[in-house]
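Per-record layout

source: marine sediment metagenome
name: ThuA-like domain-containing protein
length: 181
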Amino acid sequence: MKKIISVWSKLLIIPIVLLLTSTLFNACQQQPKHKVLIVTGQNTFNWEASNEALKQILENSGLFSVNVHISPKQGEDMSGFNPNFSNYDVVVLNYNGDPWPEQTGISFVDYIKTGGGVIVFQSANSAFPDWKEYHEIIGLGGWKNRDEMPGNYLYWKENEFVTDTSQGYGKLFLKAEAYQV
């Protein structure tokens, strides 16, 4: 009798181990996706096409779920434009237009201060030329008559960083170089 129970217990262990392994494997495969918010609606480039490309690239990776928040058209009332940044792991800025409402700017800075991520896409580096915190967050904005207000002009030249502390207009085009990310 003991031998029969021993054989049955060994036979039952195999399906239990397979079931546990399958359950654990599925749990590992179904990790939560990183939540991404693309902020857009005004830009110097075709923001509709670039949004679609960004969204598709991120979602096709299988790592991200993406929402898009579109601002009012340029010149329209921005008072209701207030994305809820805190609901996302990372914000992709594809925006270069009218200033955001003050509360939206405060919410964005708070989001960054509490660990939120940000990616500045294309001409979003030149958005908000008069917003000092924005320039501190993105590192450098180089357009729209950028001057020394946001900080020193830092660029890469001849294999080293160059810091330009001069006052006045700071726009500079450098030769594009390939680099590994």
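summary: The mean pLDDT is 80. The two ends are 66 Å apart (CA to CA).
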